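Pipeline run #58 for the internal structure catalog. This entry was flagged by the ingest filter as a single-chain record with no existing model, so it goes straight to prediction. Upstream metadata was stripped on purpose; only the residue string is passed forward. Reviewer on rotation: M.T. Logging verbosity set to normal.
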Amino acid sequence: MSPDPHYSFEHGIDHSGHGGIAPILAIGHKVTAQDFVERDLSGIRGVSVSQRGLAKTAKWDDLNPGFLFDRLRGIEYLRVLFDDTVNLDALGHLPALRELVVDCPKVRGSLQGEMRHLRSAHVRWPDACTAGLNAPHIEKLVLLRPKSEDLTTVGHLTSLVELDVHYSSALHSLDGIGHFRSLKHLGIHDCSRLAEINIAQEWPGPAELLIGGCIRFANATGAQNLRNLRKLAIYRGARGPHEVQLPNVLKDRGIELDLRGVASTWI
């Protein structure tokens, strides 16, 4: 494949989990129907699209996504960082996808079809995209700035092992977490409206709960319902907390505490 200033092939970490070197196609220019006529794309395992690498006036449609991804159905890694409105419908079905990174404040459509191989997603997109994600074996999910008031939008992703939520100004309830039977790690980071943790019903997970923000347990019962909890880590986020109230039941159960710059009192 001849060198081309508009397209680079990143030979770096194999994001798809196979080890070794991964050919990642990085798009840095408008895509035309002639661009890949003589290119063999059969070895490409990933695509990276960033508006930072394009002209400031570049639009999503300039990438001709329908044409491009029709030739890249077998990719296992996809990264899209775009400020212009992104139409996910144009990607079509990507059945082999293993890792997904989307940081797009304006999105239309959603990912299509079942993605049985998807294991990891790190996304900033509308909650409807999360609710419609058909990934029955996904293990790790990071949500950036979700607008849902609870966790019901991810309740169908019952295979999750790790879930992190960052910078949500809407999240004020953990309703929906009871669906996760395999979850080992739950991270709540700088979610300003979530003032307390109240687990209303018995739930086996997670083993590790990581919190940054103004958090306290609503009552000892809420903590008791976390049957598998082994470690509780609380750190001072953008808005605190400076001090947290912890139920004595955590001490009685020998829960490992990791308080980073946060004072604590027992109730």
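catalog note: Confidence is low (pLDDT under 50) at residues 1-21.
catalog note: The helical segments are 65-70, 127-131, 220-224, 248-252.
status: ready for reviewer M.T.
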